[in-house]
Fold this sequence. Notes:
The structure is a single chain. This protein has helices at residues 7-30, 37-50, 117-134, 143-156; strands spanning 54-55, 68-71, 74-76, 90-99, 102-111, 160-161, 167-169, 176-180, 197-200, 203-205, 211-213, 220-222, 228-230, 233-236, 243-244. It has a single domain, classed as Creatine Amidinohydrolase. The chain is globular. Helix 1 (7-30) packs antiparallel against helix 2 (37-50) and helix 3 (117-134) packs antiparallel against helix 4. By secondary structure, the protein is an alpha+beta fold. The strands form 4 sheets. It has a 5-stranded antiparallel β-sheet with strand order 8-7-9-14-15. Strands 1, 2, 4 and 5 form a 4-stranded antiparallel β-sheet that branches. Strands 3-12-11 form a 3-stranded antiparallel β-sheet, with no helix packed on it.
Amino acid sequence: MIIIKNSVELAAMRRVNQMTARVRDQLAAMIRPGITTLDLGNAAFELIRSMGGTSAFYGYHGYPGQICVSVNEEVVHGIPGRRVIKDGDIVSIDTGISFEGFVGDTAVTVAAGEIDAERKRLLEVTQAALEAGIAKAIAGNRLGDISHAIQTVVEAAGFSVVREFVGHGIGRDMHEDPQVPNFGKPGRGPKLKPGMTLAIEPMVNIGGPQVEVLDDNWTAVTKDGHPSAHFEHTVAVGIMEPEILTLA
Ligand code: MF3
Ligand code: CO
Ligand code: CO
């Protein structure tokens, strides 16, 4: 069942998602060669606490981190730890915050130092795919319109869409109905209505779409070891245009 948010609930979603966007951007600004993924996790803990929120990830199905930090071939759900970020890496930060009973969720992938041309294109294409998906988050469209728009941008660029992980409804819970795949057919799926809030989050691989989960039971990596990128915004379905709740 897809939960429609009323104006009071939407106001709370705006507040928590704005907080989440601020933390995302402050963490992204820290990324440079030499820091560890745990440095980012520790900074996230302090930033989130200073704003009066809590991590929406910590303890979720036993997840042990404050945020997810996924480097290069890591697709999603990298646990902050000893990994040292090097020049030329791409680093995805996924931040989730709980505040006033609602959840914000957003991710960005950024370059550490100088990255090669193909990685640059991966970041541009993944962000463009997210924007194309968001543009379809308008009342009267169908969920498949979002999915198809994302897939079209990714595959036109010669990259591949990860299938095992998808976007999602979000509100009082981080993961609500519906699932929002990054692939699909236009005109299919539930009709979008004002007050639906969705986390749209393409995960895009330079190589093949296959992923596997490491022995830590969380970190998803590409099977072929090629890099992957992840961008995510939480949006509210609008009448005339989508409202991006996690815009900076
Ligand atoms: N934020 C992720 C998502 O975009 C989920 C993180 S799972 C957790 O859906 F276990 F790390 F919380
Ligand atoms: Co997320
Ligand atoms: Co999400």
